[in-house]
Design a protein that fits this description.
- The chain is mainly beta.
- It has two domains: 122 residues, YVTN repeat-like/Quinoprotein amine dehydrogenase (Methylamine Dehydrogenase, Chain H), CATH 2.130.10; 153 residues, YVTN repeat-like/Quinoprotein amine dehydrogenase (Methylamine Dehydrogenase, Chain H, 7 Propeller), CATH 2.130.10.
- It has one helix and 28 strands.
- The strands form seven sheets. It has a four-stranded antiparallel sheet with strand order 3-2-1-28, with no helix packed on it. The chain has a four-stranded antiparallel sheet with strand order 4-5-6-7, with no helix packed on it. It has a four-stranded antiparallel sheet with strand order 8-9-10-11, with no helix packed on it.
- Strand 22 and strand 23 form a beta hairpin.
- The longest helix has 19 residues.
- The protein is globular and about 50 Å long.
Length: 329
Amino acid sequence: MKLSRIPTLLLLAASALTAAKLQIYVANSDDDKITIIDPATDTVSGEIHVSANPHGIVPSPDGKRFYISSESKDVLDVVDRATSKVIKSIPIGLRPNNVAITADGKRVYVCIRGKSWVDIIDTVSLEKVKSVEVGKGPHNVYRTPDGKSMIATSMDGEKLTVIDAKTEKAKFEILPGGVPRPVVIDASPDGTIRRLFVQLSNLHGFVTIDWATRKQSAKIMLPEAPPDAKPLIPATFSHGMAISPDHKTIWVDSMLNNTVNIFNMSDLKQIATVPVGRGPDWMVFTPDGKKCYVSNAGANSVSVIDGATFKELKRIPVGKVPKRIIVSE
């Protein structure tokens, strides 16, 4: 009887070990470290020391590396996950912002905010191999769910540029109707894109872009802010969104009200508001959707929100001015 239980116990131990690998990683933009949060306990479990002012962070598909841009040092740090050490700092363009990686893990795209292009880094040679023009002031870049394209936002050009991931050439542009900030991609389970959710400078809300027509299809406003409300970052009224893993809701933050606002995906009607810390910025869900983590850039903390009750569970102190936040195993 005891022998028959051994395989079960081993499976349970292996399962627990796998679950323990899931971590939340927070880029502290006015610091030189990435804070690691254990979602099982909602406590800080470690730090990764990187170049000053980390902006974007993305893991490799095999989970062995992180690629982290340094906005002040103009480098892309390559971090070995096993040791949490920087193994190389790759020189790139002026003021690198957010990053994305191709589905095969062979290329990292970095928005070069001080110029008008994205730099492309080869992950084998760990060298910059190409730059693609996307318009002045590129800020964010995303891989589409089907892995076929990369979408880069140009703040000064007020446009999105869609790049073919295979040819590494721009395919077409989308005009969102203002200065684009964060973008969320709404896609079907097979990766087919239906629409984009885009936050814009000076807009206390977001717009939707129909992917087929490449046109703005709706504008959704957040609850009105007090007349004297000022955002943490000038002209940035709302900066951070995420779609829940069950695809039933979209969560949108307000830097004017210091809240996270939750909308039904079906009709984009608001169903809840959650007060968080000052200057809520990027956010991320655990894969099971049970928790959402929100970086409070003006409070040096991360809010943990229950995905079912829409209640804040905890605020976790992190580094200085936390912004980009991801989940990875």
